[in-house]
Amino acid sequence: MYEVNEGVSELLFVFLTGLVIIAFAAFVYKQDGTNFTKLTNYSIFDLMVDKEARKLNAFYKALQKADGEYKILLNVHVQDGSNAYKIPALLIHESGVHVITEVDAKGWIVGSDRSIEWVNILYKNKKEMFNNPVLINRRYVYALRDNVVELPDNVFHSVVLFGNDCSFQKVEVSTDNVEVLKLKELKLWSAALAGDALN
To answer: How much is the pTM?
Structure first.
């Protein structure tokens, strides 16, 4: 009886090990040589262990749903005088240049595009203040616009992207060319851009 159980255990171990190897090989095959890995120089290993790499990959996949002609740039470095900025993502589309920044926040989000700080309300009403992401992204837009003077101002659009672990309790945005979205809304937003193409 003991020998039978030991044999079954070994067989189960071999089966599970084989399953893990097949899953890993499938992951490597799916990611190897993708445009994302070529664009960012993140390795497949980075996608497994690096939260930033996974987040950028999620942006990239969602932005690829854009209809029409487009180009996606990730981790764009822009110099504006003595200030240097790292823009997480740019979507250059026939509807304009969409400057995308992200906010890593959980809980309830309260803020206005006109206030200096926003509030993140966490468990047991713990409040954390953070800089207005619309204003931060506006700096990125201005820096980019100043470096690409050939384009008119109305070409640039600001997109502030939050993770899916938050809830917009009271987010007020009245500024033109500004979107505040969650990551799960990004695919739908990018797919709808074709109707907004510039003439």
So the answer is: 0.77
Rounded to 5°, angle at Cα 134 from 130 and 136: 70
CA distance linking residue 98 with residue 179, whole number of Å: 10
**133 close to 118: Cβ distance less than 8 angstroms:** yes
3-state secondary structure of 37: helix
From the list 74, 71, 78, the residue with the least C-alpha distance to 56 is 74
Q: Is 35 exposed, middle or buried (0-12, 13-18, 19+ CB in 10 A)?
A: exposed
177: left (phi over 0), alpha (psi -120 to 50) or beta: left
- The residues, any chain, with a CB within 8 Å of residue 86's CB and separated by 6 or more, are 75, 76, 77, 78
pLDDT on residue 199: 47
What is the DSSP pairing of strand 178-182 with strand 117-121? Answer: unpaired
